[in-house]
TrEMBL record:
This protein's name: Reverse transcriptase domain-containing protein
UniProt-listed Gene3D superfamilies: Endonuclease/exonuclease/phosphatase
InterPro entries in UniProt: DNA/RNA_pol_sf, Endo/exonu/phosph_ase_sf, Endo/exonuclease/phosphatase, RT_dom, RVT-Znf
Annotated Reverse transcriptase domain residues: 417-693
Length: 1113
């Protein structure tokens, strides 16, 4: 009997069988209107081994769909899981079981449809020992989501079966009003655009400087709108087709001057249209990390569709809990919800005496109130991301950057006017609220995060205010807070939390940590309290008045599907998206620190470590609060009272449903103590600041969120739209960035690192043959790599960075660790103890490496151990003189013993004359306030430098021989795709047929695709093949002179290098021409293999000339 049945209505659809196996049936369905799509119906085997053929069949069906640009929907019972969280109950899922399905999606470029209804599609029907899984699902390719971005896989009731049926709902987009004006960064490429903008900016009107500036923008907007309506629109597809026709005609009459001129003009038009499409798509996709890759327009559009789908609101729960889908009801409910949210509650009008720990100095206030300079504004504008979403006026920072010459004086006048008068034009502070869902399938407005899109001119003002405040925040805010304070680190906060929670597994004493969640934190801040607090902190009244104007004058409209609805003011809250908000929120949280310190000092609450200094009772990072205490009943009541008082005055109320308290195993009466606080008891590990907070060292299973983050970024159709260069950029910027944060926050197991690197390598080669090993790719370019970083080396660099931060001191984490572990011991000589934490052991193991990379900068020697600190070059005095002086070294003498009046006096101690002379060569800097450590980095860096993770990584990585001529390949001005093709050729790693055969790939014909005479190899394909050699010899004859006598790529590179001193411009052209020739020969080979298209040599040479002309400045 058949395992899979597929039925369709013949009245509406016609179906053709495309693929049929035991586990999947593929059918091409065509409806009466001509719409075609591929349907895959799946019923996977229970046996993992037998399911292997299913993954191959899915990949094959996906290739069929991609080759014909067809939408593909695959639905059914896969009998397999993608992630651990897709199973509850029973035995934990092993990663090896998940791997096959994940790899299938990586290769196929498929993504799951959003789930709705019954998400647990299978369960074992047991009343005890219940197990449930998400075995049934629907997958789609990029074409499917292009047609049906809102499609949902809805699980229906299982009834008597153990499986829930899956119904795919093709939710059409609702009809909304026209979207507001949005400036397009690609408009400047159009011929008459500059004239349109210039006319608008010339328009002048009487009024305040802010009014005049806003009026100019309105006139520009009006002019651009009219210009967009009347300008002729050229289709890129049509122009590309026209260009192909002309080029085909040229093949028949290659010397025709008219056709050649027409081809040149069309090529320029196509290139301009492609660039416009790329810039426009990149702006809408907002992928700031993709800066240096190839053209990735398909990827950008996939990102846009994903964001549109994720941010769409097809259904919403209204105030009565009823699900509504009508656009009018959705927009009405959204406006009502946020109007109520930003409405002032009955907050107290009088506040208790506020006694901050630190005050703004007179010098600090002078810095805040200093006159605004043009250089400050210009620096802000030029460093802004041009792809950031604009505010209600529609103008992004890209517009201001493009026309800064004409805008800078009006902008300066408008900004200076605000800083003098303290008043904002109401229109300038209007805000669009963009609703970003916090979870998939959100239907309650409480599950959306309102992000404020402010006008860019307003953001210039608040960026200036932030820069002024940045200089005083470090001295004003307690070290318990790490967010938005220069010089403080989220990683150090995480490390400190781990150190303190580590004590939970030790016997004796009650211990607890409380993870507190604030309800709608930014949105409910009491503005009057904030301003009163700032005055108590010593901020000048004029500065506080400016802050009040910024936060109290905004009006709002809510964006639903890109269209603004409603218009309302507010009386509480800070806007998420306003540059000023993070700094102001940090000041509000300082009041919580004041309340906690009062409770500790009055002994109402006992911190977890009261004998370790500095005493740490709590940690704050933005709105993440972690309280660490001895959980006596009185202490829990004190914390509850603090939260009550803090919420009453600040407006920030505790969200008891999401808050949790975690107790040590030795703590009695856990439920009763949690009840006093009014929150539920939780179990460690728990995620804190994005990483697992564990009692013991982090295990592989604790770090699965890093693995799953990597999977989600590299799998599916969205990442499949990236070119090879784009995939490298994704790994370098996004994956390596999040991995670096993890590595600096916890000690990640080697097993986790291996999984992440394996996934990255598979993604880079799209699940195929790894033509170049991951190890080699992780070398610098000059050593034969592409500049990726090895996670293993990054882990070692992260440890060295921790050690550097520890010896540098000054941070809360470093001072607490020194008090906890060193006490009277010296960091450089203390022995590793079994009671030390994993992190501190790792730091101590890094001492030999760290010692080679730092040096001591002396002031008076009062904080430098004479015998034990490595101040004498990279050695300590004890290392210099030997272990016979151990007894002397234990006396704790300081270098101040041999420094007098800013000069060395080694004769004051029993040193030899030779040692004394060596000591005198060390400089003393009396301008410093104290002795400090300086970072020197690797010996190759040539001296002192500023610490950076890059220099730290360079210190610990494995070094390899430098490869000659590699700078020619990676030279500036060469397109990424050309660079990477030449790079793979130089290493001998292009997958020609002879290499495919060596890898065991069955090749029916090994002959060269260009000449069909010899077996295909790299040497033959690029230099020995008559077809390719004709192209290369013509390039040499016309442009490169005697290079034609050289018969290998490295020889050609050497030949160019020997001549570049004579003519740098010629050498640059030669590099470009060499890279373009390699690329086009390889492209022609692939077009013949995969597309059955043939271009004659004259056409390829013409394409080479075109690429060189485009890339030549």
């Amino acid at each position: 009997m058949a395992r899979i049945w597929v039925r369709w209505s013949r009245d509406s659809w016609e179906g053709d069988l495309v693929l049929k196996t035991q586990q999947i049936i593929g059918i091409l369905l065509v409806n009466n209107g001509g719409f075609r799509f591929l349907l895959g119906a799946v019923y996977g085997h229970n046996d993992r081994k037998r399911r292997e053929s299913l993954w191959e069949d899915i990949a094959r069906l996906s290739q069929i769909a991609d080759s014909q640009h067809l939408p593909l929907l695959i639905i059914g019972d896969f009998n397999a899981l993608l992630y651990r969280h897709e199973k509850v109950g029973g035995r934990p899922v092993q990663d090896s079981i998940l791997y096959d399905f994940q790899r299938c999606l990586l290769i196929s470029g498929l993504r799951g449809l959003e789930r709705a209804g019954h998400i647990w599609t299978w369960h074992n029907k047991a009343s005890k020992g219940r197990v449930a899984c998400q075995l049934d699902r629907a997958l789609g390719n990029s074409e499917w989501f292009r047609y049906y971005p809102n499609a949902v896989a809805e699980g229906l009731a299982a009834e008597t079966s153990d499986h829930s049926p899956i119904r795919v709902g093709l939710l059409e987009r609702a009809t909304w009003k026209a979207r507001p004006f949005r400036y397009n960064n690609s408009w400047y490429l159009s011929a008459d655009y500059e004239e349109v903008v210039a006319r608008g900016l010339l328009d002048s009107r009487e009024g305040t400087a802010q009014f005049r500036m806003v009026h100019k923008l309105k006139q520009v907007k009006k002019g651009i709108r009219d210009w967009v309506k009347r300008r002729p629109r050229s289709s890129l597809v049509d122009k590309e087709a026209e260009l192909r026709e002309v080029q085909e005609a040229l093949q028949a009459d290659i010397l025709c001057g008219e056709l050649a001129a027409r081809e040149k003009n069309l090529s320029a038009e196509v290139n301009s249209l492609r660039l416009q499409e790329e810039i426009s798509a990149a702006q809408r996709a907002k992928c700031s990390w993709l800066k240096d890759g190839d053209r990735c327009t398909k990827f950008f559009y996939d990102v846009i569709r994903t964001r549109q789908h994720r941010n769409s609101i097809p259904r919403l729960l209204d105030g009565e809990g009823k699900l509504v889908g009508d656009p009018v009801e959705i927009q009405r409910e959204a406006v009502r919800f946020y109007r109520d949210l930003y409405h002032q509650e009955d907050y107290p009008t009088t506040f208790p005496p506020l006694i901050p720990k630190r005050l703004v100095t007179q010098h600090g206030n002078r810095r805040l109130l200093a006159p605004i300079r043009m250089e400050e504004i210009e620096d802000i504008v030029m460093k802004a991301d041009p792809n950031k979403a604009p505010g209600p006026d529609g103008f992004s920072s890209g517009f201001f950057r493009r026309h800064w010459g004409a805008l800078k004086l009006p902008v300066l006048e408008a900004v200076q006017e605000f800083f003098v008068s303290g008043k904002l034009l109401k229109e300038l502070n209007h805000t669009f609220l963009t609703l970003v869902p916090k979870k998939e399938g959100a239907t309650s407005l409480a599950d959306f995060r309102p992000i404020a899109c402010c006008n860019y001119l307003y953001k210039i003002i608040t960026h200036l205010m932030c820069r002024r405040m940045e200089g005083i925040m470090q001295g004003l805010v307690s070290r318990n807070q790490a967010a938005f304070i220069k010089g403080r680190s989220i990683a150090e906060h995480s490390l400190l939390a781990h150190e303190m929670v580590r004590e939970f597994n030790k016997p004796g004493g009650m211990k607890a940590c409380v993870k507190l969640d604030l309800r709608k934190a930014y949105d409910t801040v009491n503005r009057d309290f904030l301003c009163q607090l700032m005055l108590a902190m010593g901020f000048d009244e004029r500065w506080v008045a400016r802050v009040r104007e910024c936060i109290c004058s905004p009006t709002f409209s809510v964006l639903i599907q890109g269209t603004p609805y409603g218009f309302f003011s507010s009386s509480r809250g800070l806007r998420q998206g306003d540059p000023l908000s993070p700094y102001l929120f940090t000041l509000v949280m300082e009041y919580f620190t004041c309340l906690m310190d009062l409770a500790v000092h009055s002994r109402r609450m006992v911190p977890l470590f009261r004998l370790v200094h500095p005493v740490v009772s709590h940690l704050i990072y933005a709105d993440d609060l972690l309280v660490l205490l001895r959980p006596s009943m009185g202490g829990m009541r004190a914390l509850s009272d603090i939260m009550e008082e803090f919420g009453r005055f600040s407006g920030l109320k505790l969200n008891r449903e999401k808050s949790r308290v975690y107790f040590s195993s030795s703590c009695p009466q856990k439920e009763e103590r949690a009840l006093v606080l009014g929150v539920e008891k939780g179990e460690l590990p728990v995620k804190y600041l994005g990483v697992p907070l564990t009692v013991n060292y982090a295990r592989d299973q604790d770090c699965q969120s890093l693995v799953e983050f990597t999977k989600k970024r590299v799998e599916g159709w969205q990442a499949a739209g990236l070119s090879f260069g784009g995939r490298i950029e994704l790994l370098r910027s996004v994956i390596a960035g999040i991995a670096m944060f993890w590595l600096q926050s916890i000690q990640i197991p080697v097993a986790t690192i291996t999984k992440v690197e394996s996934m990255c390598a598979d993604f880079l080669w799209r699940g195929g043959i790894h033509a170049i090993s991951w190890t080699q790719l992780c070398r610098p370019r000059e050593e034969g790599g592409v500049g990726l970083r090895s996670l293993r080396a990054m882990k070692e660099a992260a440890r060295v960075k921790m050690a550097w931060q520890f010896v540098s001191g000054g941070s809360l984490w470093a001072d607490w660790m020194a008090s906890r572990y060193l006490r009277r011991s010296n960091f450089w000589t203390i022995r590793i103890d079994g009671n030390f934490s994993v992190t501190f052991k790792a730091i101590l193991k890094c001492r030999p490496v760290l010692q080679t990379a730092i040096c001591r900068s002396m002031r008076d020697g009062s904080s430098t151990d004479l015998w034990l600190d490595p101040w004498l070059g990279n050695r300590s005095l004890l290392e210099y003189l030997g272990p016979l002086h151990d007894r002397e070294a234990s006396r704790g003498l300081k270098c101040s013993l041999i420094i007098r009046d800013g000069a060395w006096r080694p004769e004051l101690y029993t040193f030899t004359a030779q040692l004394g002379e060596e000591i005198r060569t060390i400089s003393i800097d009396t301008s410093q306030t104290r002795d400090t450590w300086n970072w020197a980095g690797h010996a190759s860096s040539g001296g002192l430098g500023r610490f950076s993770f890059k220099s730290c990584y360079d210190l610990v990585r494995t070094r390899h021989d430098r490869i000659e001529d590699v700078d020619f390949i990676w030279g500036k001005g060469i397109a990424r795709k050309l660079q990477l093709c030449s790079y793979r050729l130089m290493l001998g790693r292009l997958m020609t047929r002879d290499r495919l055969i060596r890898f065991g790939v069955p090749i029916p014909d090994s002959r060269c695709l260009l000449c069909s005479d010899e077996d295909e190899s790299m040497a033959h394909l690029f230099l020995e093949c008559p077809f390719a050699w004709h192209i290369w010899s013509e390039q040499c004859r016309r442009y490169l002179g005697g290079a034609g006598s050289v018969r290998d790529i490295r020889g050609i590179l050497s030949w160019i290098r020997d001549r570049r001193g004579m003519d740098a411009g010629w050498a640059r052209q030669a590099r470009l021409r060499l890279s373009a020739t390699v690329w086009h020969v390889w492209r022609e080979r692939n077009r013949r293999l995969f597309e059955d298209l043939i271009t004659p040599p004259i056409g390829i040479m013409h394409n080479i000339d075109f690429d060189v002309s485009v890339l030549t400045p």
